[in-house]
């Protein structure tokens, strides 16, 4: 199911990410850092189907551990306290984060050997592309 996502991925392209960060309420200074860093995304599957998704950069490293279809508490890299759920739909890992009456969706999928992360907040869509290391 999620095995295709397992591995270390490095960010190679990012489109409209600043607008996305603005839409979810990220402040100017944090957006500047977020636009500069090229994080590695490390995805692994552990015992009992627990998935680890770690974002590593020189600025900040964050990690979430979750089971598909089970809600969990997440503190995002920009400090939001969210309730998150990751589902597996049509080959995509779809993560929904809710906080303060807002919801954002992150759709991760493998296309042509690359991992794409589509970040959606209302009408704003950012696309981030990762290549396997």
Automatic annotation (TrEMBL):
Entries under SUPFAM superfamilies matching the protein: Lipocalins
Keyword Transport attributed: yes
Top-rank lineage group of the source organism: Eukaryota
Keyword Transport attributed: yes
Single GO term (MF): retinol binding
Keywords for the protein's UniProt record, in alphabetical order: Retinol-binding, Transport, Vitamin A
Domain Cytosolic fatty-acid binding proteins span(s) in chain numbering: 7-24
Family: Belongs to the calycin superfamily. Fatty-acid binding protein (FABP) family.
Protein function: Cytosolic CRABPs may regulate the access of retinoic acid to the nuclear retinoic acid receptors.
Protein name, as recorded: Cellular retinoic acid-binding protein 1
Organism: Seriola lalandi dorsalis
């Amino acid at each position: 199911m999620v095995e295709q996502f397992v591995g270390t991925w490095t960010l190679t392209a990012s489109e409209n990410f600043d607008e996305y960060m603005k839409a979810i309420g990220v402040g100017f200074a944090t957006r500047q850092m977020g636009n500069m860093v090229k994080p590695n995304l490390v995805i692994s599957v552990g015992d009992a189907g627990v998935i680890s998704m770690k974002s590593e950069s020189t600025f900040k490293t964050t990690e979430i551990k979750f089971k598909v279809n089970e809600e969990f508490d997440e503190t995002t890299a920009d400090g939001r306290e969210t309730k998150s759920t990751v589902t597996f739909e049509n080959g995509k890992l779809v993560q929904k984060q809710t906080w303060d009456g807002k919801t954002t969706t992150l759709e991760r999928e493998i296309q042509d050997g690359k991992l794409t992360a589509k970040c959606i907040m209302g009408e704003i869509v950012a696309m981030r592309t990762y290549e396997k290391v």
